[in-house]
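ok here's TatD DNase family protein, seq below lol
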Amino acid sequence: MRIFDPHIHMTSRTTDDYERMASAGVRAVVEPAFWLGQPRTSVGSFTDYFDSLVGWEPFRAGQFGVRHHATVALNPKEANDPRCRPVLDVLPRYLEKDGVVAVGEIGYDSMTPEEDEVFAVQLALAVAHDLPALVHTPHRDKARGVERSLAVVTECGIAPGRVVLDHLNEVTVTLVRDSGCWMGFSIYPDTKMSPPRMVELLREHGTERMLVNSAADWGRSDPLLTRATGEAMLLAGFTDDDVDRVLWRNPVEFYGQSGRLDLTELDLAAVDPETGSSILRGGT
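and the structure came out like this:
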């Protein structure tokens, strides 16, 4: 089983996670820029973070045979903080980086006027830089948030096939399916979506434009739940080809629209003879 996790926050995971993921069949990931967990106080903290996403993190992943890509954006939660808004001026520099395959995460947290403005600006950046867009749907009042997100997508003129709305559920999937946008589902231990629920959604809606991710981060989450979903699909009667489409070919098709996916073979980790570490040290 080959797996491409289209939404996972590896900056907050350990090298042990990379090792376990590689053993489970994860060969590629996309890491979206997201909230730190506490307020950022300056644009500098964003630029350091973005530099890590396009520099150190791909190197770290490569030691385990995992190809790492990123998306960059001002995330919805911090769109409300005036200290963070100037990051919009530095985003174009990062949107030209080879490893950046989309603008994201963008969208809504609390559906404020500030979030409306930042969402529209960043969709325009996606169009200007010929990149897909990864849209975060709010955890509260999700149905209204999805409706509002789809309205902004329409108003901005970006092609729906270049947009994925993530963190969907049974209530919101039909809205997004009918819009022509891609549908993203985050498999979590307790919240969001579970493998059995995901299997039922795939039975009902098919495998087209479906993306399954772990969205693993610094909270309670599991980077192997993509694998668990594939196994649940097989037990439910889906074919190996169905699983490959959902867990590999669909994310390749969506992010491949950036023209920047690099899925060439990588060597597995080797021990650094100088440090004894299972991860080699990056240069400057």
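fwiw The chain has one domain: 3-258. kinda neat tbh
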